Amino acid sequence: MPYDATKLKDWQISEEAEKNMPTPWDWQEKLGLQKDEILPMGRLCKLDFMKIIDRLKDRPDGKYIEVTAITPTPLGEGKSTTSCGLMEGLGKRGVNVGGALRQPSGGPTMNVKGTAAGGGNSLLIPMTEFSMGLTGDINDIMNAHNLAMVALTARMQHERNYNDEQLARLTGMRRLNVDPTRVEMGWIIDFCAQSLRNIIIGIGGRTDGFMMQSKFGIAVSSELMAMLAIVRDLADMRERMDQITVAFDKSGKPVTTGDLEVGGAMTAFMRNTINPTLMCTAEYQPCMVHAGPFANIAVGQSSIIADRIGLKMFDYHVTESGFAADIGFEKFWNVKCRFSGLKPHVSVLTTTIRALKMHGGGPKVVAGIALPEEYTKENVGLVEKGIPNMVHCINIIRKAGINPVVCLNAFHTDTKAEIALVREHAEAAGARFAVSEHWAKGGEGALEFADAVMDACKEENQFKFLYPIEMKLRDRVALVAKEVYGADGVSWTPEAEAKAKMLEADPKYNDYATMMVKTHLSLSHDPTLKGVPKGWVLPIRDVLIYSGAKFLCPCAGTISLMPGTSSNPAFRRIDVDPKTGKVSGLF
After folding, report:
1. Is 79 part of the annotated catalytic residue set?
2. Contact indicator for 358, 416 with CB cutoff of 8 Å
3. Which is the catalytic residue, given 79, 308, 357, 550?
4. Exposed end of the chain (fewer CB within 10 Å): N or C?
5. Active-site option among 46, 63, 92, 113
6. Catalytic residue among 295, 355, 400, 426
7. Cα–Cα dist 84/443, whole Å
8. From 411, 465, 482, 501, the catalytic residue
9. What is the pLDDT along the chain (587 residues), one digit of tens a residue?
């Protein structure tokens, strides 16, 4: 180590690093775990979190480090790579370090974005397992979610076919009177399948189901995935499982999974998902993978459970928030930390010269197409024009009272003049700054970065939430729009405002989290507006209700829960060696 990342593909680096990867029993010894706290699953293992938490409950928590980013290009700016690089750099400094990252969806893995396992010498191993289902959590979520839809559609069929007396005698069920035009839930599959966004089900006769319009979303958009990220234990999961709103009846009353008597079976499918999977970086720092919810409609974080374990097992625990500081960090700050009761010590703002140039007016960046030369040649002017986006994101972190560290995720095309300019502005905005070459050099390239983070962790911060839990929904949205996004105000459609007023008037929703829904490609709701847009208003068109996760999701713009597969997807380049069974072509 490090491997030559300019010549080897990520999957090849992973393959080489896997030759010396610790076994589950090596991890038991290395992490000081009891034998019954390790749950072997092939080359990997899960951790029995309840046993670990109970045994370590009196141990002081380690340092809590969050990783976010500036507003990204469509290529992403390397938060997972930066998270792995930070763990490797801290490991080189000899500290006890670990982390927690989200599980990737099969949709992006087989599409354009790739596996989200990091890259170069800063990636998670074993990469194939990470990229292709891991230890089965997403499959369990799909089964549990789709079982709820089976329960609903079967119930609707039987209620149509039987009168009240027959229904009670044959099934023991009471009539729910589901409104077929107000079915909130759909089906899920873990691929980008745009042809399933809008479907008709139940075509045929009376025994073929209930005919109605339905839909599919991608698996990680399921409310069950969001729940996995924020529950504290299995008892919490079981209680929430009965509270999921599946539809509304003809009088407007919610129909829940509890009404369908399916919550217990759903929890049975998900009982094994409660324990994080243990992986490691290419330099063998332990990293848990647990949960993978959307960041633009759900919380976009790995689990509270994984953070609770990590803070007990490690002196430095690294976790990552999805997308940029305006979305992922805001939800880490005001939702995840509120639910967990955990206080972060430092936040890392991942930054690239490439993204700054885009925000400075550079040509459009398109995934799968070579970058224009403006991004690979020195252009200090473009960088300078894009720096306000970085400064805005630094200020978001500082509003939370957290110490920010700007990590420049270095590319070989970055020049000294460009880097010096970014350092000058980051430090002037009140952040520590570090250049990190973890992609090319692993932990050795991240020493300056690791030192900056350790230095920041020594300082006390004044962590505080943006708003009190008592604040009304519309007031919360207005505050996030102004203080986080930089909007002049908020406009509500009449339907959305009426829904918000109804939710504000019902005490049931007082403690629900506010989960903003908008594009990740701009600080605004419009993905074409780069930099720091001025003179705009955030439009809210709807408020989604996730009653199991206890989220209210104000929607700014149209967000699809089912992405589409591109014309040149990654699966075209993935194959298996028939002699060895090894997978090649994963990004």
Report:
1. yes
2. no
3. 79
4. N
5. 113
6. 295
7. 9
8. 411
9. 688 888 888 888 999 999 999 999 999 999 999 999 999 999 999 999 999 999 999 999 999 999 999 999 988 899 999 999 999 999 999 999 999 999 988 888 888 766 778 899 999 999 999 989 999 999 999 999 999 999 999 999 999 988 888 888 877 878 999 999 999 999 999 999 999 999 999 999 889 999 999 999 999 999 999 999 999 999 999 999 999 999 999 999 999 999 999 999 999 999 999 999 999 999 999 999 999 998 777 899 999 999 999 999 999 999 999 889 999 999 999 999 999 999 999 999 999 999 999 999 999 998 778 899 999 999 999 999 999 999 999 999 999 999 999 999 999 999 999 999 999 999 999 999 999 999 999 999 999 999 999 999 999 999 999 999 999 999 999 999 999 999 999 999 999 999 999 999 999 999 999 999 999 999 999 999 999 999 999 999 999 999 999 999 999 977 788 889 988 888 988 899 899 888 888 76
* Strands 212-214 and 199-201, bridge-based pairing: antiparallel
User: Which tokens sit at 250?
Assistant: 């003809």
| Inter-residue contact 585 to 12 (CB < 8 Å) | no
8 A C-beta contact, residue 363 and residue 356: no
301 secondary structure, DSSP code: B
In the set 71, 73, 81, 351, the catalytic residue is 81
Q: Tell me the backbone φ, ψ of residue 341, rounded to 5 degrees.
A: 75, 10
Q: Which residue of the set 130, 294, 314, 323 is catalytic? A: 323
Note if 113 is an active site residue: yes
Adjacent-strand bridge partners of 396: none
Name the 3-class secondary structure at 384: helix
573 is catalytic: no
Residue bearing tokens 């873990």: 190
Q: How far apart are CA 402 and CA 464, in angstroms?
A: 9
> Could you tell me the domains of the chain?
137-267 (3.30.1510.10), 474-555 (3.10.410.10)
Q: How far apart are the C-alpha atoms of 174 and 244, rounded to whole Å?
A: 19
Please confirm, yes or no, whether 323 is among the known catalytic residues.
yes
Is 174 part of the annotated catalytic residue set? no
Alpha carbon distance 16, 143 (integer Å): 35
Q: pTM of whole model > 0.90?
A: yes
Give the angle subtended at the CA of 184 by the CAs of 178 and 185, to the nearest 5°: 105
Active-site residue 312, yes or no?
Answer: no
Is 295 an annotated catalytic residue? yes
Residue 193 designated active-site: no
Is the link from the previous residue into 494 a cis peptide, with omega within 30 of 0? Answer: no
